[in-house]
């Protein structure tokens, strides 16, 4: 009887182990399939176009042939190099402001909410509201307030959008993205065990010391996600410049890529330059993103 029960238990354990392996395989297959379908399959033709060039005959017939000219043009054509450097500079400016202003302020405001200071709950609501309003409506309201409301309130046109478009676009992006980051940081802070905070207080970790030595290290995994995704999207983020319809001198790389892609809808011959630039930026972004993640994992504050 004992042997029979033992065999049944052993068989049941093997069945459960097999089921767990099948479940794990299905679970792991999902991101793989997603990567294959939404990156490799979708971008297969685009990658191919990056290595193609064309000539058009007198009867408007396009002949395609293998070439790396559309790739090398981004390093040799002075006009394209200038466009690339100018838009890359703007992308770095937008991201740099976010990195140096939005992230530190977001952490401090999240800490304010975490400590349940006066009006902390109200701040959470007011800061998060802009992120749930459709971007088009939010941009229109922002420009309307600057152009129509501020002259009446302050009796001057100095705050109108056109007087400082770059500064206003930067301010808008900081404000719109601020609420989401504060909410995410605060939620992570609320997961910190009260016992850990009390132990820190007994060891003299009060005020800024508590934030720096306890709260920040335990919040760092969430902060790391924001930093890595920010670097990963730095070349494709439009920073809402398209909706503001500002001068091309303020265009980041994301807007520049959008214009190239839009031009490709008008003529197939415009596809290779856009595809080539996309491939170049991907080759740059992948090691850059993994490099930033590696550095954050290695040198960032530990939860221990």
Protein model, in words:
The chain is mainly alpha-helical and 304 residues long. Helices cover 76% and strands 3% of the residues. It is built from 11 helices and 2 strands. The chain has helices spanning 2-50, 69-76, 78-114, 120-132, 135-154, 165-190, 194-202, 208-232, 241-244, 253-264, 271-299; strands at 52-56, 62-66. A two-stranded antiparallel ribbon has the order 1-2. β1 (52-56) and β2 (62-66) form a beta hairpin. The protein is globular and about 85 Å long. The protein starts with a helix and ends in a 5-residue tail after the last helix.
SSE string: HEEHHHHHHHHHH
Q: Class by helix and strand content?
A: mainly alpha
CATH architecture identity of the largest domain: Orthogonal Bundle
CATH superfamily of the largest domain: MetI-like
Stretches where pLDDT is under 50 for at least 5 consecutive residues are: none
CATH topology of the largest domain, which one? Answer: MetI-like fold
Record the strand order, biggest sheet.
1-2
The profile of the biggest β sheet is:
2 strands, antiparallel
Radius of gyration: 26 Å
Number of helices: 11
CATH class of the largest domain: Mainly Alpha
């Amino acid at each position: 009887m004992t042997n029979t029960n033992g065999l049944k238990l052993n068989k049941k354990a093997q069945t459960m182990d097999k089921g767990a392996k099948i479940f794990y395989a299905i679970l792991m297959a999902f991101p793989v399939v997603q990567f294959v379908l939404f990156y490799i399959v979708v971008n297969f033709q685009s990658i191919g176009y990056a290595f193609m060039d064309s000539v058009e005959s007198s009867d408007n017939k396009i002949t395609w042939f293998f070439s790396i000219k559309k790739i090398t043009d981004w390093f040799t054509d002075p006009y394209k190099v200038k466009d690339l450097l100018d838009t890359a500079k703007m992308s770095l400016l937008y991201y740099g402001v976010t990195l140096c202003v939005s992230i530190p302020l977001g952490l401090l405001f999240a800490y304010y909410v975490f400590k349940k200071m006066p009006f902390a709950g109200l701040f959470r609501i007011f800061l998060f509201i802009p992120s749930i309003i459709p971007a088009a409506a939010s941009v229109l309201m922002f420009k309307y307030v600057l152009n129509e409301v501020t002259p009446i309130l302050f009796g001057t046109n100095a705050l109108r959008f056109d007087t400082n478009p770059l500064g206003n676009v930067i301010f808008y992006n900081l404000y719109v993205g601020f609420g989401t980051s504060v909410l995410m940081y605060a939620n992570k802070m609320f997961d910190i065990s009260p016992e850990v905070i009390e132990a820190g207080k007994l060891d003299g970790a009060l005020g800024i010391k508590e934030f720096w030595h306890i709260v920040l290290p335990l919040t760092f995994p969430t902060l790391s996600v924001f930093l890595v995704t920010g670097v990963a999207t730095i070349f494709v983020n439009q920073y809402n410049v398209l909706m503001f319809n500002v001068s091309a001198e303020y265009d980041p790389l994301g807007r520049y890529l959008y214009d190239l892609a839009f031009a490709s809808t008008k003529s197939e011959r415009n596809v290779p330059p856009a595809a080539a630039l996309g491939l170049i930026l991907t080759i740059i972004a992948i090691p850059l993103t993994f490099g930033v993640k590696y550095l954050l994992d290695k040198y960032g504050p530990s939860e221990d």
